[in-house]
Amino acid sequence: MRRRLDIAMSLVGNSQLIFLDEPTTGLDPEARIEVWKIVKELAGSGTTVFLTTQYLEEAEQLADRIAILHKGRIIVSGTLTELKKLFPPPKVEYIEKQPTLEEIFLSIISKKTEN
Fold this sequence. Notes:
The protein has 5 helices and 4 strands. The chain has helices at residues 2-10, 29-44, 56-62, 80-84, 101-114; strands spanning 17-21, 48-52, 66-70, 73-78.
């Protein structure tokens, strides 16, 4: 609850620039998705959002530009597309993908809210 209050307080007002330092740390999956929606809405309305995160999936979902830090220094920055070009081309492999526990949880709760 304290984490949610921290996030809510940082969003009060109509700032053109917001700094969010690991806003989803310690949040449950539902609250994490809600924070993602809020960040996307803010960015979509013209607010500049500086976001730090250790969750790389979060950076992929939310960031227009990404800076990767290692040992306190920015070692590379760019768009996700630019960063992906630094990696060798993908090779195609076929694997069976099992749902993650987070996907299972979100599926279960969405079914319960529909009923």
